[in-house]
Structure formats: C-alpha cells, structure tokens
Amino acid sequence: MSIRAFKRDDLPAIFRIYDSSKLDELKFEDTLFTLLPLENDKVRLNGLLESDIYVYEDLNCIVGYAAVYGKEIRALFVSSESRGKGVGKTLFVFSLSLIQEQAYLYVVRSNKRAKQLYQEHGFNVIDTFETTYNQEPVVAQKMVRTVLAPKQRG
C-alpha cells in the first residue's frame, strides 16, 4: 500500500473510482441523481486536472485518490471495495500534510460519514449553500480547518 503522485495513465482508474463512488456521496439526498461520468463532466474534470492528484495503490491497483489545489482538498474518492479499510483516512491525512495553511473543502450536507472524518481532523462548517450536480440541486457545505501559528499551539 502506498500513495504516489498521479500519472496520466491513471485516468482510467480515477474515472472508474469516481463513477462508482460519486452517487454514494449523494445517497442521503431527497433527489435521485443520475451519474454524470467524470470524463463527461468538464467542470469537475478540469478542476481535478488542475490540482495535484495522488493515488493510493494496493497490490499495484489504484483503490483511491485525492486532489489538492492550493489550500483546498478538492477530491477524495475510494473504491467501494476498499472502503472501511482506512484508505480514505490515509489519503485525507496525506492531503492535509500538503497544506500548511488553513485548509478547506466542500462536502454534501447529508454526507455524514465524510463530515465526521473531517470534523475529527479539526474541520468545522462555515457555510451552507445550494449548488448542483448534473443539473439537480444539492445542498453543500464549506468546511474549514484553522491551523494555529506555532506560538499559539502550546
């Protein structure tokens, strides 16, 4: 098991993980969403590709990935067969280690499992707003983690 920088050859695995996982983050919404495959979602794909992407490999198979853009954790997806094994948490902690300042991310309000992980690492909701996924409304939240300056830590 290891985390490494993304290579262009990793795109098919990333598409597979995203496409099999995206609707899971929306499953507690009242709306029934239809998947817009990542390779057809120009906005999300462009946002991903302009980020620093890291993949989690297990036995030479990519089972998860994360993307960081500046201070934002822009993506964190784990294949369904690898969930509950610490892959997401490991990718998340790795992503946080790359951000020296105040980190932030966006999450679907009803995605309690993800929000719990983020809160365990010091993130708090600072904004709630409506956005869309595949032209359907969804309520999202911005979460921020404040990093204390060295003299404030202790």
UniProtKB/TrEMBL annotation:
The keyword Transferase applies. Keywords: Transferase. Residues 1-145 form the N-acetyltransferase domain. InterPro entries: Acyl_CoA_acyltransferase, GNAT_dom. PROSITE patterns: GNAT. Gene3D superfamilies: 3.40.630.30. The keyword Transferase applies. It holds the Pfam family Acetyltransf_10. GO terms for molecular function: acyltransferase activity, transferring groups other than amino-acyl groups. It comes from the Bacteria. CDD domains: NAT_SF. This is GNAT family N-acetyltransferase.
